Amino acid sequence: MKVLGIETSCDETGVAVYDTAGGLSAHAVYSQIALHALYGGVVPELASRDHVRKTLPLIRQTLAEAGLSTTDLDGVAYTAGPGLVGALLVGAGVARALAWSLDVPAIGVHHMEGHLLAPLMDDPVQRNALHAGRQPDPFVALLVSGGHTQLVGVDGIGRYRLLGETLDDAAGEAFDKTAKLMGLPYPGGPQLAAIAQQGRPGAFKFSRPMTDRPGLDFSFSGLKTQVLLAWRASDQAESTRADIARAFEDAVVDTLAIKCARALDATGFRRLVVSGGVGANLRLRAKLKDLAEKRGAVVGFPPPVLCTDNGAMIAFAGALRLQAGQQEDLGVHVTPRWDMSTLPAVELVSA
Ligand code: ATP
Ligand code: MG
Ligand code: FE
């Protein structure tokens, strides 16, 4: 089954073709970062208009790269939420119309389910097991992106339990805001992480929020304030910025790791899967790998390009649901706020 995936929930247009027989056929992402940088954040109306401009050219490009035409497609998946309503409607409208014109089913995908399943798509053994009808061993998913920080207990595909989440800023948002207050251009998260490589560990010390009490929730907004105070009181030299960046990164990474360990203990699961943009962070990857090894658990990450927003994860999650017989009616529906635990379970079938 060849499924076209369309992602337009925020500021990236992502398109991909996923083939249940062979994996990812082609994918392309167009980032609107330059467009929004001028404003220091995503401007929803500009995002929608840019998706209108980019979605069809990207579909043509992706199909050409895969050596396919629209008539080869067996289904169309699109991000139906959560996200910006106008941006979502662009992808949903294009996907629904295309599927209707081709007389193939369409499926609306939860963006965070896309992130959550992306690591499984990248592993041929796990991917093939899913398409052969076998559920994965239960695992803990750490979703760390620009808008979410969640620990999810995954009992099966479509069976998600929220174990904990951020009470304020998401981890990626904290990276971006912290970068901004130290004068780095939007979105500063990856740049802050790059600068932190030059920083001296321990030169500054920030707290590990909410690790001194039981529970799996997070809070990152206070860290940002600690950084602001340290930065203002400092000489603001390049090397100081690097030291502060390093201390901030260590605080976030440690906090995430402590809660991941607790989530593994609480569930008894032996597998941790990390996804979302902050999953591209090298120090986080190293720390969680170390943590998992010490506990006899395994940790999986998608490659960095599949951590941030992309159409491939939407095509993959959509393919699993389409294979299980799920599909949308002919309306164009999006759900800007959407709780993942309300998703229907997926009864996997052998292809
Ligand atoms: P959501 O998925 O919650 O709707 P989003 O789609 O905007 O949010 P992603 O595209 O998954 O989020 O990830 C983007 C976020 O990841 C940004 O906040 C960015 O700063 C952060 N990020 C990307 N690379 C790194 C890195 N190497 N270190 C830390 N943060 C990073
Ligand atoms: Mg984004
Ligand atoms: Fe995302």
UniProtKB/TrEMBL annotation:
CDD domains: ASKHA_NBD_TsaD_bac. It is found in: Cytoplasm. GO terms for molecular function: iron ion binding; tRNA N(6)-L-threonylcarbamoyladenine synthase activity. Substrate binds at L143, V144, S145, G146, G147, D176, G189, N281. The keyword Amino-acid biosynthesis does not apply. Its EC number is 2.3.1.234. Keywords: Acyltransferase, Cytoplasm, Iron, Metal-binding, Transferase, tRNA processing. Its cofactor is Fe(2+). Residues 26-316 form the Gcp-like domain. Binds 1 Fe(2+) ion per subunit. InterPro entries: ATPase_NBD (IPR043129), Gcp-like_dom (IPR000905), KAE1/TsaD (IPR017861), Peptidase_M22_CS (IPR017860), TsaD (IPR022450). Belongs to the KAE1 / TsaD family. HAMAP family: TsaD. This is tRNA N6-adenosine threonylcarbamoyltransferase. It comes from Cognatilysobacter lacus.
